[in-house]
Amino acid sequence: MFRSRIFSFASRDMAIDLGTSNTLIYLRGSGIVLDEPSVVAIETIDGIQKVIGVGTDAKSMIGKTPRNITTTRPLRDGVIADLNVAELMLQHFIATALGGQSLLPRWPEIVMCLPSGATSVERRAIRDAASNAGASKVYLLPEPMAAAIGAGMPVTEAVGGMIVDIGGGTTEVAVISLGGLAYSNSVRVGGDKMDEAIVSMVRRNHGLQIGEATAERIKQDIGSVVKSAESQEVTVRVGGRDAVTGVPRKIVVQQSDIADAIAEPVKRIVDAVLLCLENTPPELAADMIDQGITLSGGGALLSGIDHALCKATGLKVSIADNPLTCVVAGAGRTLEDARYKSVLML
User: Fold this and answer.
1) 99: which of 25, 179, 194, 341 is 20 to 30 A away, CA to CA?
2) Model's pTM, two decimal places?
3) Top-level CATH class of 152-189+264-324?
4) What is the spatial distance between Cα 316 and Cα 150, in angstroms, rounded to a whole number?
5) pLDDT digits over 317-328, tens only?
6) What class has domain 191-261?
């Protein structure tokens, strides 16, 4: 987690990656100052709701709360599902990023990242959330463009390059050239769908119910697209509730089981990449023989995902240096580098 600091009024313009899994904030002149889970804990007493935890504090409560406390993710599939909660969360994160200062006397300009396939209603929800949180002006930036800038791709040059940003709720696939999206495709599959697939597999194969936090931990520990040889099988021990007796127990999960479980969401990601290639103009397609495909987002860290895409496309596939922060870092650079001003949308 990034520690918040006290900043001068001049450095309050910021870029925000409001993600399904995590929210990151980049402050002009200071870099990335916040990285927190996009989770809010709400307590209800006599019909009155009160926020009691946001970010890391709220995530630690998932699956462990009493009946009067709920943990919620205000974003689903990369877009805002609960505007009121999203605004409260955003206000909290902005205040934290500013070291607890009030936004007054200067309201910041904010660059908000959003999926390239977001509808007009979804775009308006993101804009409203930022405006109501205190922005004087809101710019919108497609996530694949932000990821490409953050990954160091030559987005303003007449060279075609493909970015695949695998987030928690969506996977963004785009071919970028001359500061624009020559073709983009947004599919609502990402880390969350993989976690759901792992939960279903454990219940189906082992008769054990586990929570989303446990599924995410399994994916991070032994998740892989490619099955290991039997002699090299990796396992992890996890606990949950027996689906029949209700008694807590532990089981051993194998890496090959995880590969089978996530095969369907991985196939959807591969299909999205192939569809993008099919719709790419020939001259840009030729560029990608040399440029290859760049992966970003948390899903880029899934073992074997780069090899699966390389096998399916025949192109070289590389993982960005800092895949988890590419989107917000790229959005932040649009605040500081005049070359990228043209990619922002009002």
Assistant:
1) 341
2) 0.90
3) alpha beta
4) 19
5) 999 999 999 999
6) alpha beta
